[in-house]
Amino acid sequence: MDSQQASGTIVQIVINNKHKHGQVCVSNGKTYSHGESWHPNLRAFGIVECVLCTCNVTKQECKKIHCPNRYPCKYPQKIDGKCCKVCPGKKAKEELPSQNFDSKGYFCGEETMPVYESVFMEDGETTRKIALETERPPQVEVHVWTIRKGILQHFHIEKISKRMFEELHHFKLVTRTTLSQWKIFTEGEAQISQMCSSRVCRTELEDLVKVLYLERSEKGHC
């Protein structure tokens, strides 16, 4: 559903951790479960790397991948199979030295996982994405917020493979968090999605994201 189809403010919440029977999409002879993403395969062009499709219940929703205007290196390179250019030798997952993690990436004894963010603005509409990368299962959970004039118009969740996520170069690593903090984030997100569907919310979403940042107390205790 896009903004032109919406009447007033519509908040669509799609939170499905398990695939439900019958909620599948079929593309080019392949079956995809709800929340799965893929690049379309067209006979005349082959696999279209710059288009990403997602199965929303039984409906295919496809969108163009927007590559960054600027890169952190001077001469980014185009690689076969990827939509956007990449910096040679540049790893997508960089360390965050400012946070208090031990050598194994644990915080107060709990395993941490990388959190990524993407913000895209077009025609007065802001699309903000918060993504969590997990090892079990090996996937990336992307939470998508569409905001217009401070009002949340659309909210949904996508789950994509790590390989596919690596092709989305508009994401940047912002922090690492734990599953317990991610749970607090998703519970608060569900409440805010309802609250901000009828009134302007300029600080609530920002405050919610801060939950994902891990900090020890001044004395260093957990």
From TrEMBL:
Q: Where in the cell is it found?
A: Secreted
Can you tell me where the transmembrane regions are? none
An example GO biological process term is: ossification
Q: Which residues form the VWFC domain?
A: 23-88
Q: Which InterPro entries match?
A: CHRDL1/2, CHRDL_1/2_C, VWF_dom
Superkingdom as given in the UniProt entry: Eukaryota
MF terms (GO), sorted A to Z: BMP binding
In its keyword annotation, does this UniProt entry include 4Fe-4S?
no
Q: Which UniProt keywords apply?
A: Developmental protein, Glycoprotein, Osteogenesis, Repeat, Secreted, Signal
- CC annotations in GO: extracellular space
The protein's name is Chordin-like protein 1
Q: Organism, per UniProt?
A: Tupaia chinensis (Chinese tree shrew)
